Amino acid sequence: MRFYATVPMGLEEVSSEEIEELGGRIYSIRKGKGRVFFEGNQELVPKLNFFSRTLERVLILIENTCIDELEDIYTCLKSLDYSFIKPYQSFAIRSLRIGKHDFTSIDISREAGQGVIDSYMLSKGHRLKVNLDNPDVIIRVDLIHDELFVGLDTTGDNALHKRWYRVYNHPAPLNTAIASSMIRLSGWKEGKILLDPMCGGGTIPIEAAMKMRDIPPGKNRKFAYFNFMGKILPDYTEKEIFSPIYGFDRFRKHVDGAIENAKEAGVLDTIQFMKKDFLKVEDFEANFIITNPPYGLRIGKKRIIEELYTGLFERAVNVLKGDSVLVLITPHKGLVEEIIAKLGFTMLDIIPVKYGNLDTTIFKLKI
User: Fold this and answer.
1) What pTM did the predictor assign?
2) Is 237 helix (H, G, I), strand (E, B) or coil?
3) What residues are paired with 245 via a beta bridge?
4) Residues 17 and 98 grouped into a single domain
5) What is the pLDDT of residues 172-224, one digit of tens each?
6) Number of domains in the chain
7) Range of the domain at 331
């Protein structure tokens, strides 16, 4: 079978490694488009949905082609086989459009939906029911510039990064798939001290603790494939492993929120959350710093952000010990490059990442 996964744009290589570890065979990576194509058996559907930490969605590939006009979408969708949909099942189109076009994602959904209906009527003599709110089958039709991706969604409307443990919502939460990609990129392993000095709602420490203890991120949720493959979930065994993981934040409400999230995730006994201003921290050592510092886009004062980032890196120089690594995500690429050059950091990796509508960069650094 052929599949593709949607992943955070820019992190396709990182997600490809995870897909291969879980049994998929990569055959194409669309860098910058957030799409990874792979082959494997049907067992990959529950396995990837349940265990993957860096993916957004897992789809069974129906079609991948290039189009010029809106009408081409209808023509393409009408030419495809939808025998996997049972006559009694309802369906919905979910579409995404990126690039310059003289039509909208709503237009894509309309044309694609009509193509599915007409194709099924011709082949089966039956008009499929549309249910936009609670469909049995979701077909994703995404257009990125001129490339069309059509897939049977096995994940559902709730993307894989929407973890069950988020009972406290930080005002600027980090996407868990990006957090897990940063952890994977860092090379952090059990036994090494990990610190997020500006942890907010605790996403990075929690994702690290779940990874270390083999707690599946797909726990406590439903998947779209339940409707056409049955409620199949892989077996797993959680580990009772404890390793030094720390989360600091200077705001008490965020520390309390991170504690609530960690409790919900079942890893509160694995992480030490503390109310601390990292810029004032003394006598602390870590091997890995992985963090999503404030972007300050709403503050509007360049000086404040410069002081914050300079302080972050200066403290990191003193805190990091041994064979250490610093990984962070930021929209302030130029500022970070300027600071790390002054302080003597070595750049191990730099990855542009599209985070929503924001252009950000993940840095992997060594002092």
Assistant:
1) 0.94
2) coil
3) 194, 271
4) yes
5) 889 999 999 999 999 999 899 999 999 999 999 999 999 999 999 999 999 99
6) 2
7) 176-216+223-366
